Amino acid sequence: MSVHFPDGAQRPDAGIHCQTCSLSAICLPLALKMEDMDEFDAIIRRRAPLVRGETLCRQGDTFSQVFVVRTGSFKQVVLDEEGEEQITHFHLPGELMGLEGINENVQPGFLIALERSTVCEIPFHQLDALAERLPGLRNELYRSMSRHMGEDHHLIRLLNCKSADERLASFLLDLARRFQRNGHSPKNFRLPMSRTDIGNYLGLALETVSRMLGRLQQQSLIELKGRELHILQPEALYQFSESHPCLGHALNRQKG
């Protein structure tokens, strides 16, 4: 029987181990040798499942751990000084959460489950010490940080350089790429987030998101039933998402 801690975490003897996890090929232990895997596995706490809408950590909490999504999905919500909510990230299985807290030693936002979800909790001081001795783990940690920076740059480009249609098309293609990385179909998957959340993330009104989804369906680029998405023409959707390069937008603004 697993031993439960007050914070919902469990010891790594809960019957799930990195060696047998289906996400090991895309998670932090990716580059570890088998003899190092047990050492990494020993620092992990596997938390009890979270239900949809449950908060994993809160903005302003002291930074002491990072998380890897095992199942389900999460959104990161940041509150500004006026109390307005802004979704800054969506996290899927195998992805690392909480790295942004390293700089200021506090959690930068709320991590909220979008559906029934489970995570691996990794105390950062132990991860940092282990990474000092295991170059493969250190390099994979650096790659995860680089991916996070790339996602931030991608979001900035979406918000500053693309029309509403292009933002939505780019967002769907990015989800497809990430689901494919997880071993799922890049053409058929379920949207874990609501249209309201998509609009918040992309800086669009709910009505705009619904209208754009309808337009993509009318053009036979996608088919959407509830949250079940089918990308019918990936190449055409990509061309649609890149129809107005950022440079063109910048030049148009200068001319105006």
Describe this structure in words.
This protein has 256 residues and is of the alpha+beta class. The protein has 2 domains: 139 residues, Jelly Rolls (Sandwich), CATH 2.60.120; 94 residues, Winged helix-like DNA-binding domain superfamily/Winged helix DNA-binding domain (Arc Repressor Mutant, subunit A, Orthogonal Bundle). It has 9 helices and 11 strands. Strands 1-8-3-6 form a 4-stranded antiparallel sheet. Strands 2-7-4-5 form a 4-stranded antiparallel sheet. A 3-stranded antiparallel sheet has the order 9-11-10.
Structural class: alpha+beta
Strands, total number: 11
Q: Unreliable stretches, pLDDT < 50, 5 or more residues?
A: 1-14, 247-256
Q: What do we call the CATH topology of the largest domain?
A: Jelly Rolls
* CATH class bucket of the largest domain: Mainly Beta
Structurally, how many domains make up the residues? 2
Say what oligomer this is. Answer: single chain
Q: What's the mean pLDDT score? A: 83
Q: Shape from CA axes?
A: globular
Distance between the first and last residues' Cα: 68 Å
Look at the structure and name the CATH superfamily of the largest domain: Jelly Rolls
Beta strand %: 15-25%
Number of helices: 9
> Which strand order does the major sheet show?
1-8-3-6
- Could you give a short account of the major beta sheet? 4 strands, antiparallel
What fraction, in percent, of the residue positions are helical?
A: 40-55%
- SSE run: HEEEEEEHEEHHHEHHEEHH
GO cellular component, one term: cytosol
Keywords: DNA-binding, Transcription, Transcription regulation
GO molecular function: DNA binding; DNA-binding transcription factor activity
Protein name: Fumarate/nitrate reduction transcriptional regulator Fnr
